[in-house]
Amino acid sequence: MPLQKLAFKPGINKEGTNYSNEGGYFSCDKIRFRSGYPEKLGGWSRSTPGQFYQGVCRALVNWTDLQNNNLIGVGTHVKYYINRSIYYDVTPLAYTSSPALSSPFATVTGSRIITVTDGQYQPDVGDFVTFSGATAFNGLTAINLNSEFKVTNIISSTTYEITLPVGTVATGTGSGGGASVIGRYQISIGLPAATTGNGFGAGFWNGVNVSTTFNTTLVYTSGPNPWTLLNTSSTTINVTDTTGFPASGIIIIDDEVITYTGKTLTTFTGCVRGTNNSQASFHGFRPTAGVPEPVSVFNVLSFLGTTGWGNATTGAGVGVAQQLRLWTHENFGEDLVFAVRGGPVYYWDNNTSTFPRGVPLASDVPIVGTNQVMVSDVSRFVICMGCNEFGDNVFDPMLVRWSDQENPFVWTPLATNQSGEQRLSNGSFIMQAKKNRQEIVIWTDSALYSLQYIGPPFVWKPDLLMDNISIISPNSAIIVNNVAYWMGIDKFYSYSGRVDTLPCDLRQYIFEDINYDQRFQVVSGTNEGYNEVWWYYVSNDEVAAATQASRVPTVDKYVIYNHLEKIWYYGSLPRTFWLDSALQPFPLAAFGDENTGTLLFHENGVDDNATETTQPINAFVQTSDFDIGDGHNFGFVWRMLPDVNFNGSNQNNPSVMLTLFPRQNSGANYGNASNAGVVSSNNYAIARQYEVQQYTGQVYTRLRGRQMAFKIESTAIGTTWQLGTPRIDIRPDGRR
Question: Do 11 and 115 have their domain in common?
């Protein structure tokens, strides 16, 4: 027989069986398709070598100021940074000691642990505090004490513990530190991932499958600490309204999960604090901030799962999910507005000499919280997606509220300005908003809206585009070339003037692989140089592995839609956020654990340079099974003629491995594979352009099967490749 070309349809298709997708590709990792042919992804390297941030990054924004400084805002679950070659901590403060603390530190000889007494403010474990004005005592210098510390343990409502660096210990026992110690407490940290409580008591008896959220707000109380709304032992919780909440159930305040057994119109009674592995915490008013903390009460029955008797799980397998920390942010000119999801809005007044901390937005009326803050392209309005109404301090997750034109500090609606508000009607909360050409696209948990500027007196007008849709997370939508793409709960969507379901050849595979408890970690991004939309997500395998290792589950998988070629591919890669900015030479991605976070330049080189040691990027793509005719005869393959190029490699004689897998029939295992290394004759470490690609011209094999699959992979440093159309010498070899 003549040589048979191995030409396959671009994209990965896992919707059917391996054999039913004959002529296509079935599995892959770290590859893309360009002009219809598969190739290895580009490499990555650290954007700021030796510089790290603390926490898991959940937000990135890039802008330049009037001095042409290139700035990157980095929001993590513990801090907020602005990067200009190095990371500057601009995390807002929650409280500053007033009056100064007197001898607040207590030490024990030979110990690194310091007990701090402060009756003015109660931090949580993991919060950060910076001291100043302290003097030396018990062997500790002023430099030892006047530093930033993380709270490691809560002793009581007035005392907590911090820990000195390794190698530093107290040489005496007793209290001290001077009479003028100032503690500056940063806003409380958030969660690096959603957490759930499992087992009896974590879920409900009848297999609840809802994610309904009702909202109310804590009521201020009087007392010696007037900013304290709720202490750690209260069993009755006073709120503005309990309408919509069941007679008994579970409420969430900040990160604390609380069960209650009864309610009145304005109270929850019989409360058990700190359930489901959460911690009983103070929830209160920060005097220096000027606005309440985000202390809305949420009643969350269950997140996307059926539990209880009659199911495969034993007891409650899903339980109650607590939201991870997410930031939103946008530049207002050279300044920055930013907010924690569900929290107040902060403002960073650009000063790249001192990099001051962000402060609460100095609005003329209170902004108690928002799900997302953004700045419009039209006339520069600051817009809160989810906010409290004018004249009311109750957070409304469906209210869109905006400042006056070109003035982020004026929010009082008057005939002389353009500030105002509109409430959306379809849904229970706003999930995400994105700016598009001449409109802002808003996703609620069940509908899609278009918000357009129409000028006074109504200023902004929302229009319902589609209801009965879904969106999986607050960062799962992206706009490319005026088209919105997003991941829903069980499928992908696009909006280009009308809402459409996006055909996906990986739909079943992806949505069975996603862990829905961690769905708020889903993040989207673009790689415009390759016409790609990326979605990163947490897989079920990652959650199982994290549980086994007692660590926090994080993003480990991705799926890509090539919107030019309309094809899909997928793989494994841990990235917690992605930003493709025209102000950067390459796309930026966030990577690292809670203590060594870093930003990576993608499509830079051909290897993994996320750490000090260069690592290879293991990439492969494998076809579905193919045969001769309809498989009446076995085929015998005795040689292959490769068709590969190695353009972009940076080593001498790069190579790939080609593998043929024979199979007797669709239900059988693959037989003995025939592997062949294809080695380039060119030295890419010296020259990068060749008129003719020179590599192994033919490889000899010996295998027999009714159907076969083909795979190309690389595992070496300095190697990249693109597959063309290889050929095999195959002949019929009987029917048995």
Answer: no
pLDDT, average across residues 142-161: 95
CA dist., res. 696 & res. 659, Å (int): 15
The answer to whether position 196 is within a domain reads no
Q: Are residues 122 and 23 in the same domain?
A: no
- Whether residues 331 and 466 share a domain: the answer is yes
Q: Is residue 675 part of a domain?
A: yes
389 domain residue, yes or no: yes
For residue 452, give the H/E element and its range.
strand 447-455
467-508 residue pLDDT tens: 999 999 999 999 999 999 999 999 999 999 999 999 999 999
DSSP state of 517: G
Per the structure, the count of domains in the chain is: 3
* Residue 482 within a domain: no
CA distances from 454 to 379, 461, 473, 633 (A): 11, 7, 29, 70
The helix (run of H) or strand (run of E) holding residue 511 is: helix 507-513
**Is 357 within 8 Å of 390 (Cβ atoms)?**
no
My answer on whether 460 and 356 are in the same domain is: yes
Q: Which of 140, 167, 186 is the last residue of a domain?
A: 186
> Whole-model pTM?
0.84
3-state class (DSSP) for residue 519: helix
Residue that is last in its domain, among 474, 506, 534 = 474
Give the Cα separation of 471 and 429 in Å (integer).
12
Kind and range of the H or E element at 542? helix 540-549
392-437 pLDDT per residue, tens: 888 999 999 999 999 999 999 999 999 999 999 999 999 999 999 8
pLDDT digits (tens, 9 = 90+) for 353-374: 999 999 999 999 999 999 999 9
Tell me which residue range forms the domain holding 159: 93-186
3-state secondary structure 94-162: EEECCCCECCCEEECCCCCEEEEECCCCCCCCCCEEEEECCCCECCECHHHHCCEEEEEEECCCCEEEE
φ and ψ of 549, to 5 deg: -95, 5
